[in-house]
Each structure stands twice: as structure tokens, then as C-alpha cells.
Write a structure and sequence with these properties.
Layout (H helix, E strand, L loop, with lengths): L3 E6 L2 E6 L5 H13 L3 E7 L4 H9 L3 E12 L15 E2 L6 H11 L4 H4 L3 H8 L9 E6 L2 E11 L10 H6 L9 E9 L8 H15 L4 E7 L3 H9 L3 E13 L1
Parallel strand pairs: 2-3, 8-9
Antiparallel strand pairs: 1-2, 3-10, 4-9, 4-10, 5-6, 6-7, 7-8
This protein binds coenzyme A (COA).
The site of coenzyme A has 21 residues, from β8, α7, β9 and α8.
């Protein structure tokens, strides 16, 4: 079952396959998860077969919103400019953790896999070799963090130790050997939604990546996240790929 890639993400599991899987292969993977203590599972499948859908159901996994992989050329079209006076600053590890966790939890209250990050998970991410505080943009309003845009650069010429599903997925974003700039996560405190902060932060994130010479931008977004998808499309992003997602708990 070498084409099944099982990884731990935060406290759960992510299953990805480089080809379609048989019921026996999938059952082996579930057995492995169960033997390691079980937990929440997300299975990303490109164009699942009827057998794969049946496998998911057999093991108690339900269909979730698909995961869209969106792309754009960098820099963004020059019509997408930052509003006058909009500023960000780099994330300060150890200083900003609690404020960021609070904004992240509020912004992603409807998306527990992102909204329930703990300080331990954040510290792990901040220690990743790819982490660049300059590319983790923080916006403040009256001295309080109200939004953020965390970018990540993927250099395909280097080997990565894939820390999470995003890393794993992004290495399948082929532009030859060209490095790709990802908006890893962007969020705005709900009390400040609809004021243009999300647009400004996304523009700022892609501008940061473009300033580092990257010509390809990308991100992943849940297919039911209308606000985010509308924003990204308005910036010229298009859907390059979609994976079906099955989720559940293995115990
Ligand atoms: C997506 C998000 C960052 C947008 O932030 P925001 O500050 O509210 O957005 P803006 O005010 O800058 O709006 C930018 C555009 O987004 C779109 N948009 C925002 N809210 C929308 C909504 N409720 N429905 C549809 N489109 C919406 C519009 O295209 C809007 O442009 P317009 O104002 O010219 O119509 C914010 O909703 C958020 O933090 N969501 C939770 C976290 C999240 O889902 N992040 C993205 C994960 S990939």
C-alpha cells in the first residue's frame, strides 16, 4: 500500500493516496490508525470511485466539503492594491501566540480542524524549517490583533519534512521545479469582517511572496467557504484541482 500516505496532523490523521485504493488497502490503513490509538481522520480523494465511497461509509467516514486548490500568477494584477495606510507587522513568536490563537479560534469557529489549534501546535509550526516570521503578517486595529495572513514558500528543489496536510498537498502543486508561494492561513476577527481586512491581508500576503521572487501563488480552501472563495476569485485566483474529503473518528 505504498501509494497510501498516512500522516499525523495536529492530533488527527490525514490519508492521501497517489492512486485509487482497494477496500483491503483502505482497511489496512484504518487498522494502522486504530492500532496507534485512533482519532479524527480526514481522507482526501481525487475523484473517488464508488468503491472508495463505500469504503468511507463502511469505516464511518462522512463526506465533508471538498478541498479546492486555487492558484494565481504572482504578482497579482496591479488593480489589486493595498488600501492606503494598511500596515502589517511580522509575527513575534512567544509574544503573539495567545492573541493569535484567540483570533484564529474566533475566525475559524466553524472549522474546528483549524480553529482549535493549541499553543503546542502553534509552537510546533513556528519551529518548522520553513517558518519565516516576516511572512506571517499581523494586522492590528487600535493596538489589538484583528487579522493575519500566514504565508509559506515551497521550494521544490529541496526535500521537505511534511509537517501537515498543507505541506503534503502543496508538494503536489506542480510548476516544474519553480517555487510556489502559499497563503497557508488567512483570517480576520469576525467583529471586523466586511471591512476590507481580508482582502488587504490576502493582497499583502501575495505581495510578500511576489517580492521574494515567486511567480506562482496558491492556497487551499474548503469548497463551502463562500466568503473566502469569492474573495480569492475576485483577486484572479482559479480552481486548479478539487479533492473530495471524507471525515470521521476511528476508535
Ligand atoms: C475570508 C475572510 C478572511 C474575509 O475577510 P473580510 O475582512 O471579512 O473580507 P473583506 O471585507 O476584505 O471582503 C473581501 C471580499 O470577500 C468577499 N466576501 C467577504 N465576505 C463575504 C461573504 N459573507 N459572502 C460572500 N463574499 C464575501 C467579497 O468578495 C468581498 O469583496 P467586496 O467587499 O468587494 O464584496 C473572513 O471571512 C474570515 O476570516 N473567514 C474565516 C477564516 C477563513 O475562512 N479564512 C480563509 C481560509 S482559506
Amino acid at each position: 500500500m505504498s501509494h497510501i500516505h498516512l500522516s499525523r496532523v495536529n492530533r488527527g490523521w490525514v490519508i492521501r493516496c497517489h492512486d485509487h485504493v482497494t477496500p483491503a488497502e483502505f482497511a489496512d490503513t484504518i487498522t494502522t490508525i486504530r492500532a496507534a490509538g485512533g482519532g479524527n481522520v480526514r481522507w482526501f480523494v481525487c475523484e473517488p470511485t464508488n468503491d472508495e465511497r463505500a469504503c468511507a461509509a463502511h469505516h464511518g467516514l462522512q463526506a465533508d466539503a471538498p478541498l479546492l486548490h486555487m492558484r494565481c500568477a504572482l504578482p497579482l494584477n496591479t488593480t489589486h492594491q493595498l488600501p492606503a495606510g494598511f500596515v502589517t507587522r511580522p509575527f513575534r513568536a512567544g509574544v503573539d501566540n495567545q492573541a493569535w490563537l484567540a483570533v484564529n479560534a474566533r475566525a475559524f469557529a466553524a472549522h474546528p480542524e483549524q480553529g482549535n489549534w493549541t499553543n503546542d501546535v502553534l509552537i510546533e509550526r513556528l519551529a518548522e524549517p520553513w517558518f519565516d516570521p516576516q511572512g506571517f503578517l499581523i494586522h492590528e486595529t487600535d493596538g489589538h490583533m484583528t487579522g493575519f495572513c500566514w504565508t509559506q514558500m515551497h521550494d521544490h528543489s529541496a526535500e521537505h519534512d511534511h509537517a501537515d496536510a498543507h505541506d503534503d498537498l502543496a508538494t503536489h502543486d506542480h510548476h516544474g521545479s519553480a517555487p510556489v508561494g502559499e497563503i497557508y492561513v488567512v483570517g480576520v476577527d469576525p467583529s471586523h469582517h466586511g471591512k476590507g481586512l481580508g482582502r488587504a491581508l490576502t493582497i499583502a500576503g501575495f505581495a510578500y511572496l511576489a517580492a521574494r521572487g515567486l511567480q506562482h501563488g496558491m492556497l487551499y480552501v474548503a469548497g463551502n467557504n463562500t466568503a473566502a472563495i469569492t474573495l480569492y476569485e475576485s483577486l484572479g485566483m482559479t480552481v486548479a484541482h478539487s479533492d473530495d474529503v471524507f471525515i470521521g473518528t476511528i476508535s
